[in-house]
Amino acid sequence: MAVELDHGGLMDRVYRHQRHVYDATRRYYLLGRDPMIAGLRPPANGSVLEIGCGTGRNLVKAARRYEQANFHGIDISQEMLATAGKSVAAAGLEKRIRLARADASRFDPVKVFGRETFDRIFISYAVSMIPGWQAVMREAVAHLAPGGELHIVDFGDQRELPGWFRAALYTWLGWYHVTPRNDLFEVSAGIAGSHGATVEERRLYRGFAWISVIRRAA
Question: In the chain, what are the domains?
Answer without folding.
Answer: 2-215 (3.40.50.150)
